[in-house]
Amino acid sequence: MRKLFILLSILLLFLTCCRQKEVKNIQIPTKELSRIESIENKLKKAYPDFILGIKDNQLIWTDSTTMIFDDKILTKSHDSLLNFPDIEDQFFYEYPSDPNYMDILSLNYDPGRIRNDAFLKKMYGNTEEEVKENLVEIIWLPNSDSSKLLVTKINGIHNKLEQISQELDTLPDELKKFVIKPAGTFKWRVISGTNRLSAHSFGIAIDINVEYSNYWKWDIDSKKEFKYKNKIPLQIVNIFEKHGFIWGGKWYHYDTMHFEYRPELID
Question: What is the DSSP letter of 57?
Answer without folding.
Answer: T
